[in-house]
Amino acid sequence: xxxxxxxxxxxxxxxxxxxxxxxxxxxDAWSSDADLLPLVLKACEAYGADENSYxxxxxxxxxxxxxxxxxxxxxxxxxxxxxxxxxxxKIVSKAPVPLLLTRESDILDTPHVTGDTVKRLDRRxxxxxxxxxxxxxxxxxxxxxxxxxxxxxxxxxxxxxxLVEALAAHxxxxxxxxxxxxxxxxxxxxWLETFLVDLAGARKAREAVPVLVDKLRIDADYLLDRxxxxxxxxxxxxxVDLIRQAFPVESWVFRLYTSSLLGxxxxxxxxxxxxxxLETEASTDIRTDLCFSLCRLFSERGVPxxxxxxxxxxxHNAVSLEEELxxxxxxxxxxxxxxxxxxxxxxxxxxxxxxxxxxxxQMAKGYVAQKKARAEHxxxxxxxxxxxxxxxxxxxxxxxxxxxxxxxxxxxxxxxKCCGRSKNR
Length: 425
Hints:
Elements: H1 4-7, H2 16-28, H3 36-47, H4 53-57, H5 66-78, H6 82-93, H7 97-108, H8 115-128, H9 132-145, H10 157-167, H11 175-182, H12 191-202, H13 209-215, H14 221-234, H15 237-246, H16 252-264, H17 268-277, H18 284-296, H19 303-312, H20 321-332, H21 339-376, H22 419-424
Helix pairs in contact: 5-6, 6-8, 7-8, 8-10, 9-10, 10-12, 11-12, 12-14, 13-14, 14-16, 15-17, 16-18, 17-18, 18-19, 18-20, 19-20
């Protein structure tokens, strides 16, 4: 598999698919390389910020230096794309507090910096001045106040994240306490359980790896997602070894989540584990996820395996292995017989998705125009004057989309591999 130093130049590659995949490689691993964001900005300068919206979305956790912040602020001031502005605001909102203190006026004077970003920066600056014991009490209080909430979206996750990040710089609670709590019934099912998982990840605590791997046996989507993220941040080989040993006899849920996690931990041990597990795994969807992880590792050894999986038949609802393998081939300089056919199919899929997005945008504009016309016309629509047909807003019939259901955006992928992936990160 390729080394991170060899992959970095591909952040500015002319092919959008390559840029997306390479930035995802570093984002999945929570890379601390401060050279990544300048490369992302260079890609935006070369190919346009609009063409790099996904890249910017995956860049919010990259290390931010003063020169990078200047580039982000300049891009934010110039953009007219709301989606790009959203992602740039997210990058700014995570600026290191010492950098924030020296560049506060520059941030506040930048067009398109939102009130939410300013509010979050103020809060992070305040939290940075708190003692560890107080932050720990605040995190426990947040958990207590959230005890009766039923859904993930009902608590302020940005506040929880900021508390965790501030607390990660302190020794309270120590890791022995965290590990003990995570193995006790005291926090089981409480929000504090999730917050402690996040804290272990933010501290990159290797001693918490066995406890976190054990959490992957719990069938609770959000906690599982946070545990995968924590183990990705830690990035320790011990997690790979524990997963590889347990994988063959574990539940489908455990195998589903860990098959993706193995692609996030960028070590040769992960590559070895995936190749070994594919020799015995019988479930098509799990095999598909394992092959996807091989592609995310840019594994040259895995190319023949993925090709065989494509030929044998895989779970097309989860991911397009052909598209993923094309990116690997472009980066590694490989070729295979069906490459051009797959490129044509990928381009057709892209055009279809863009057409669908344009149709949805047009529907949204029509609905906004309808509401505006109704508000402005004093007689309602009873007089026969109504330039717009009745447009019904799209309503969800379920409380949430299942992780393994088709993504409602129309991409053809499973929700967990599409919009659900960015939402949960």
